[in-house]
Structures are given as structure tokens and as C-alpha cells.
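Contributing: when you submit paired examples, paste them exactly as shown. First protein:
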Amino acid sequence: MAEYSRILVIKLKQPGDVLVSTPVLAALKEAWPEARVSYLVRRGTEEMLADHPLLDGLYAAERGRGSWRESWRLIRELRRQRFDLALELSGGDRGAFFAWASGAGERIGFARARQPFWQRCGLFTRLLPRPPARLHMVEHDLEAVRALGVSPRSPRLQFFWNREAEAKIQAWLADRRLSPQNYAVMHPGAGWRFKCWTPQGYARVVESLMSDWHLPVVLTGSRAEHEGELLREILAECRTQPLNLAGELTLKELGALIAKARFFFGMDSAPMHLAAAVDTPAAVLFGPSGVFNWGPWGTGHLVITKDWECVPCGRDGCQGSKVSRCLVELSPEEVLQRLSEWAAANQLK
């Protein structure tokens, strides 16, 4: 097995994708404990890795093309680090370019369909075969590590937060007389509305948890316009009043809040992966996305999805409608039944 002293991992994707790649960091550090391992991610996703005790360096590339000056400054900084290995896990043109521009002597990426000749023969020193389509993204990313002769042991997601985030969440809970394990976090939104359930469905779950289970519900959400609209519709439907923290938390604070919850309820989203990373049981609804690729990593989680032949389709709604029938036709009754059975079996109710 080769020796490496400076390793760069490139993951220019969404926050959830970055978090799902953290087993790569642990595997590299296990194989080469003395090596400096750094990450290059998209601007805005750094919180998924910041404060990780195994990480030695963290760089951010601007979304889109950014300015030439900023890109050149980043490239100069990467080259100053004198990386001897770059692992490109993004699968895109920008990641391939930064792998080459880093100056790393060994540059490894995955082959992909219709990959340009200039990438296949110029930017990488080694292209790995495309992993199977039905492989979980954790295992997909770890294929790059296995290609180096490393066999990762018990891969798990990891997420860390600082004292300020911990103190803020502890104070918020204390002000509302909530104790750890005595509330549920519901994050209804996702990156796209077609991956979300109905406001009526979410409202019925809120009411059941609060009235029947006597379990307070904390609603969370991003500042995205479509998520704000969804939260307003849910609150208008609710006959009980959940606690609402939507748009008020950083990713670090959200992780700290989920870590203390009895369980998480939501969609295929970055907060779902946060729940898995902080060992909080997650009950999640899946529609067009493949559970085999993106399901909550680990054991003890619940995935609720329609048993239809067309699921998953990977599309943005049925027939271009931006509405996924496999989600909107999930009834509150069937979701609550599955949720109740899961909670009882795992002593969460």
C-alpha cells in the first residue's frame, strides 16, 4: 500500500452529500494516521465538516464559476499544500479541474457516462470503474478508498458542533422546559418541493404526536422560500401548536437539536443525514429518490414509501408536474400506523 502525507478529498455537492462522505475521512485517517487530510467543498456546505477532529484543512469553492481572482487564489493555496493524493468524489467537471489544478501527483476519480476525453486522459492519473447504480452513497464514496487498498471498518457518519451551538440549544430547551429525549424534531422541507409530503399530512402527524403521544414537536426548516411556504401551510392546518424554529438555526445548531431529540421525522434531506450522523432514530418519507442510494445510514431507522413499480423514478414529479403522487398519496393514517409500530418496537413511544 502506498504512503501518503497530504491528501485532498473533493466533494463539490450539496450539504447532505458532504456529510455522507465523512466515512471517507475516517477511513483515510485510519489507514494513514500521520497524513494531513483536507477537504474541498462548495461554499455554504462547510458546516458539515467544520469542527471535525480528524480534519486538517477545509477549503471552499464558490458556487457557479465565481470570480477568476477567487478561483486563482484557491488554486494557489491548494498547490501550496503540495498534496500527493487527490480523491475526486463529486463526479463533475469542476471537481475534476480542481483535482488537476491542485498539483497532486496522484489524482483519482470515478469514470462516468459521456465523460469528456480531456478528463479521461488529462486530469486524472487513475479512473475507477463506475460503482453499481443501486449502491448507497456511503459505499459509493468508500469505493475510492478501497481502490487504495484500504478496507474501512464499520463506516459511520460523523457530525460535530462547537460550544456556542451547544450552549444555544441547551438554553433554548431550558427556556421551554424541554429535556433531552422528550421531544421530536420534524423537518418537513427538502431541497425541492416535489420531494415533500402534504401540509395536511404533516399537520396530522404533529397533532398525533402532541395530543396522543404527549410528545412536544419542534418544527425546523431552512430559509428557502418554498420551505417557508410549506411551514406556513402546515401551521395553518395544525389544531395544536408545535414549537417553531424554522429559519432560525445554523446547521451546527440543528445538529445539536436533533442529537437530543427522541427521534427525527422528515424527508430525504440533509437533516435526515444529520439525524443518522448524531445517532438519533429517523423516520423518513421517500418518494422519487432511491432509498438504496440515499436512505438514512445505519440501523434503527424507518423508511416509509409507496410500494409501486415506478418508485423510485428519479424524476422531479409525475409527468413533469413537480408533484410526486407516490408522496402526496401517502395517507396520514398509513404514515401514523407505520410510525406507531416502529416507535413501539424501538421503545420510542
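Second protein:
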Amino acid sequence: MEWKSRNYDEYEMESRERNRILLLSVLFSGLCGYLYFHSAAAVVIFIFASFPILPVYKKFRAESQKQELRMQFRDFLYSVSASVSTGRNLEEAVEDACEPLMLIYGGNAPVVRELSHMTRVIRDTNGSAEVLLKDLANRSHIEEIGEFVDVCAVCRKTGGDLSSLIGKASEILTQNIELRNEKHMLLSQKKLESRILALMPPAVILLINLSSPDYLEMMYSTLEGKMIMAVSFAATLGSFLWSFRLISFD
């Protein structure tokens, strides 16, 4: 399994995924342009306006992969705490955690890939688990990982009881991760609700166009109707973006 250093604040898209997202955004934007204005020019404008969706999507995926690593790190804390309580040192505890986490999440899981790399470095170069975990904390920008590394560093410098301190730190950090995960789940639910609400206006317009096209004919043929449709689209888009801004906080 090849390991590659990853900055978890960035998401690397494969060409197939990029093309799929672009195709979906183009189709949806073109459909919205046609539904609201029945104009080829509006369709073209909407399609070009949809291209900035890629950076937004990459940011969303980066947050998702950080959340995935954070939840997997919680199980790593359980394993490390159990290992050091039996007298194992930190390097041995990191090696012990790799195999059970691989059984749970599979070989391609972020935490498994990171631990596999740490295990190889520790075995081949007698490296320090503390340094390797610090590198992971710097690349992932996950507070709980950084705090765990700080506890290990202080413990080694002061000669404290590694088992006791790591056990207590693991308990506190695990609770923090679980609280953060609960908040993340609540926010995900609200985001889903906002997406559904945002899709309802164009869905209603599409339904009317399919069932009774004459009902909206004056909205597309008169200046006043076009202005109403433009205001309607702007209000729908604005409310969608505002709802995400209200519920997107860390």
C-alpha cells in the first residue's frame, strides 16, 4: 500500500470525479436557466456561472475527510490508551493500533494509511512516534491530534506517568470528538433540509411547465414576468446561500 503525504485541508480530485461534478453542475444550471427564463442565452450564462462550484465542492470534501480522520482518531485513542495501560511505550502502542483499525475501517482508511506509514518508519529507522504524530497534526489541522501530541511531549519531558496521562487525555479528547461529531450530524441534517427547500421552487416550476405550460407563459413573454422570475431566482439562490452561512460554523 503506497503512502503519500497529505494535507487534509486540501482535497485532490480525480479527473473522473471532476468531470462528473462539472457535468452535474452544468446540467442543473442549464435546467435552472431554462426553467426561469426559457432563454438559450440564460442557459449559457447559467452554465458558465456554475464553474466555480468546483472550489466549493473541494472545500466540502476536505472538511468531510478531516471529519472522517477525526472520528477514526477517536478509535486510535481507545487503542493507544489500552496498550500503554499494559506497559507498552508509545511507539509500540502505535504499532498495536494499526491492525485492529485496519480490520474496522479497511486498508484505505486515512488513519490506517497514516499508522501504517508510522509503523514502517518506527521499525526501519527507529523513529519517534511523537514526531510522526506531530507531523500528522500539522498536516491535518485537527485540534485533538495536536493536543494529544502536546500531552505526550509534556509527559516525556517531565518524566510523568505515561499510562495515566495518556489514559486521561484520551478520555477527554474522545469526549470532545464525540461532541464535535454530534454537532456535525446536526449541521448535516440542517444542510440537507436547506438543500431540499432550495430545490422546491425549481421543482414546482418544472412541474408547472410539464403539466400546464400555458399557466406561466406570460412570465416568459413579458418584461414584467421576466423581472418577477429573475427576482424569484435571486431570492431562492440568496436564501440558499444565507442558510448555509448561518449553519456553517466550527
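If you have annotations for the second protein, write them as plain sentences, like these:
The CA atoms of residues 83 and 92 lie 8 Å apart.
The two ends are 33 Å apart (CA to CA).
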